Amino acid sequence: MNDERFIDTGYISLLKHGEQLCGDRVIFTSNENTRIGVLADGLGSGVKANILATLTAQILATMSVGGMSVEDCVNTVVRSLPECSVRRIAYSTFTIIKIRDQRYVELTRFDNPHTIVLRDGKNHEFEYRSRLIDGKPIYESRFEAQVGDVFVVISDGVNFAGLGGAYPFGWGRDNVIRFLEAHYDPEMPARRIACTLAEECLRLYEGMPGDDTTIAVMRLARPHTVNLMIGPPSSADLDGTMLNAFFAQPGERIVCGGSTNKLAARYLGKELTASLDYCDSDLPPMYHLEGVDLSTEGALTISRVLEYAGEYLSGTQLHPRWEHGRDGAAQIARRLFEKATDVNFFVGCAMNPAHQNPKLSLAFGAKFQLIDKLSKRLEEMGKRVTVRFF
């Protein structure tokens, strides 16, 4: 049986009503064989909480990537955080989740709600032990994960949703678990799981969260490859090389650019037709080409995808623009952000005269800059990215 795995990650934060900054912070990072997620919840709310959470998350993520011990991480956080002049305490609660070799899970938490694990769509209870580090009770768990496992890390704002209203004492862990089980879908990506839970929290808060509310999700998924080809190669002699490489690669196929789509149509021996459906007045229409999953315009569409990537990584938009859009950029975004675990770019290096038009705000090399920036954004999302030039 194929046991290949990939760790899908995503998160969303709802700001406390009336605040401009979130007092929670999530960081996902990786080293050679370990994917790491940190959720820090700063004391209070607003600017101070944001500073506390940011410092805590960055310290813990950096030290965890470096392989430092839990003791060193906690001691460094305690020594580094500024002290509240009113309450004379200085701390941020936190949860650290490490998944090594896409299999072995290490959970460490201090004063955050207990992490929820779904296995086959049902709550999976696991053992943990507690110990004191620098006088603080730290809870740790170690266990082996399975493909399909979902890890839901939450801040206090989730449990407190509905406090004094629908739930006099707050929503609570048991109700959160029941909600997650009821809405479980084995194909639902990590960020959408987080947003589904956050949307219910927002409803329980009647649109005015009483606390910063953050959900970070890590999910062990099967790999899914998306291949994207943009631009003709630098020489016509390389047409066959690039097209052979692109169509030999398993997975979904996206072709961007009019000239590139024409090359692909000739290679496949199929008719290329332009869509008359202008889904977005600022973007050129798409194409239809049998044998290709999605055919779009090139640089302008990818530029919009790059904008969407920034919105995705901000972790604050419950309903991003690309979520239900029918335009080419939105459809590419959904494939790359939500479905893809591996992304392969096939980039042709031919000069496009259209990119010299100052009205398009695209200089020579814009295509390469866009792909480079998009690749980095996708890597920040945890995708495995390769780029080949022709």
Q: Residue-averaged pLDDT, rounded?
A: 91
Principal-axes shape call: elongated
**Helix coverage percent:** 25-40%
SS-based class: alpha+beta
CATH overall fold name of the largest domain = Phosphatase 2c, domain 1
Task: Give the strand order, joined by hyphens, for the main sheet.
Answer: 2-3-4-5-9-8
Task: Kindly provide the name of the CATH class of the largest domain.
Answer: Alpha Beta
Question: Strand tally, please?
Answer: 18
- Provide the low-confidence segments as ranges: 359-364
In the residues, how many domains can be counted?
2
Cα end-to-end separation: 36 Å
Number of helices: 10
* CATH level-four homologous superfamily name of the largest domain: PPM-type phosphatase domain
The profile of the biggest β sheet is:
6 strands, antiparallel
SSE topology string: EEEHHEEEEEEEHHHEEHEHEEEHHEHE
CATH architecture of the largest domain: 4-Layer Sandwich
Strand content: 25-35%
What Rg do the Cα atoms give? 23 Å
What keyword list fits this structure?
390 residues, 2 domains, six-stranded antiparallel β-sheet, five-stranded antiparallel β-sheet, 10 helices, 32% helix, elongated
Question: How would you describe the overall organization of this protein?
Answer:
The protein is an alpha+beta fold. It has 2 domains: 6-221, 4-Layer Sandwich (Phosphatase 2c, domain 1); 225-389, no CATH class. It contains 10 helices and 18 strands. It has helices spanning 46-65, 70-80, 156-159, 173-182, 190-204, 239-248, 258-268, 299-314, 328-339, 366-380; strands at residues 6-14, 24-30, 34-42, 92-100, 104-110, 116-119, 122-123, 129-133, 136-144, 150-154, 213-221, 225-230, 252-256, 273-274, 287-288, 294-296, 342-347, 384-389. The strands form 4 sheets. Strands 2-3-4-5-9-8 form a 6-stranded antiparallel beta sheet. β12 (225-230), α6 and β13 form a beta-alpha-beta unit. α8 crosses α9 (328-339).
